[in-house]
Amino acid sequence: MLIGAAVVTTLCFAPAVDAAFPGRDGLIAFTRADGSEPTEIYVIRPNGQGLRQLTHRRYDAYAATWSPDGRRIAFTSQVYGEGPHVFVKRLGGGVRRVTRGPHSYWYPTWSPDGRRIAAVRLRWAWPELYEAVVVMRADGTRERVLLESDWMGFRNPAWSPDGQSIAFEGTGVDFNGADPGLYIISPRGGAARRIADVGGSQDEPDWSPDGRLIAYSWGDILAPDDIRLVRPDDTGHARITDDPLVPDGGPAWAPSGRRLAIGRLGRIWTLRPDGGGLRRVTRGPVRVSDYDPSWQPLTAPRRRASQR
Questions:
Q1: How far apart are CA 289 and CA 282, in angstroms?
Q2: Which has the minimum average pLDDT: 6-15, 25-34, 144-153, 213-222?
Q3: What mean pLDDT is reported for the chain?
Q4: pLDDT given at position 302
Q5: Of 237, 240, 263, which is closest to residue 252 (Cα–Cα)?
Q6: Distances (CA, A) of 34 to 37, 116, 155, 188, 286
Q7: Rounded Cα gap, residues 33 and 21, in angstroms
Q8: Cis link prior to 127 (omega < 30° from 0)?
Q9: How many Cα atoms are found within 13 Å in the side-chain-facing hemisphere of 43?
Q10: Each residue's pLDDT tens digit, 205-262
Q11: Residue 174's pLDDT is what?
Q12: Which residue, 148, 142, 143, is CA-closest to 168?
């Protein structure tokens, strides 16, 4: 199934360099909801140690995603009187607002070279609401619209490690209802191609560090959500969780490719790509809910050239 790009700007697009997403496994960032308090971004080690609150916002902060160098986190936060916008938090530093203007932005994702961010934009043109997948520089300038629609909603874009594709979740409404599906589009724009169209809903895509697989959440009204895998060419379908009583969601690959982090029963867990080795990472009181993990890549330090 193809979707024609409704709006494509004429800005020049610089191809991405080698992806920086692969690496050693660092911290796991996630969203924590605590009763009536605003949601915040936390980080924790994969062994469950070192829990730390990263953001301290007046309004909700969520949808965290690590930069390829593992030094920054882009996230969404509400702005009073404006709606959601994209912010960047540097580890050990301050928070910088990236998007501005009359539109709203959420669900950021980094390009492999760290120079660009893709996100979902909401634009009101009364009486219609238009949603779009957009790409911009990491400072919020030179925005480029890849795909825009007044009948289809977009969520959770995810940039491939080679920089050549962006996977995202698209939800259209028809006589059969509204079921999210997975699509892939080029960062240069053009048509979007649907994958993993196996019935039910498909959402929350995340590329493996080698770019060979996409993990996603699959759901059906008759069964809890589970985690599945698919190749970008729509082959190699596999189910890695299948608990008839427990819903799983928000898969995030470890930079090593050896494990995935998921949301399960209001906590963050990790498991192997074959579905084994399930481990609980976060804990807390019943009122606390943890979800939407993102795994930090730790790049190996460069060796200094030997002096003769």
A1: 10
A2: 6-15
A3: 89
A4: 42
A5: 263
A6: 6, 32, 24, 40, 9
A7: 27
A8: yes
A9: 18
A10: 999 999 999 999 999 876 779 999 999 999 999 999 999 899 999 999 999 999 999 9
A11: 55
A12: 148
Distance in angstroms (rounded) separating the CA atoms of residues 302 and 195: 38
Cα-atom radius of gyration of the chain, to the nearest Å? 19
Q: Containing H/E element for 22?
A: none
Rounded CA separation 115/17 (Å): 10
DSSP state for residue 138 in the 8-state scheme: T
What type of residue is 300? A
CB 297 within 8 A of CB 21: yes
- Residue 13 half-sphere exposure, CB side, CA atoms within 13 Å? 22
Q: Which two tokens stand for residue 1?
A: 């199934």
DSSP 151: S
Q: What is the pLDDT, as a whole number, of residue 173?
A: 65
Is the omega angle on the peptide bond into residue 232 within 30 degrees of 0, that is, cis?
no
Q: Return the percentage of the chain with pLDDT > 70, whole number.
A: 88
pLDDT of the residue at 10: 29
Token code pair at residue 241: 């969780």
Mean pLDDT of 48-66: 96
At residue 167, does pLDDT exceed 70? Answer: yes
Q: Count the neighbouring beta carbons within 10 Å of the beta carbon of residue 197.
A: 13
DSSP string for 238-306: EE----SS--EEEEEE-TTSS-EEEEETTEEEEE-TTS---EE-----TTEEEEEEEEEEEPPPPPPPP
Q: How far is Cα 118 from Cα 134, in angstroms, rounded to an integer?
A: 6
Q: Which residue has the tokens 């790509």?
A: 273
Both tokens assigned to 58: 């007046």
CA distance 158 to 205: 7
Tell me which of 306 and 250 has the higher pLDDT. Answer: 250
Could you tell me the two tokens for 156? 């959770």
Residue labelled with tokens 């993993």? 196
What is the model's pLDDT at position 16? 30
Q: Which is more confident, 243 or 87?
A: 87
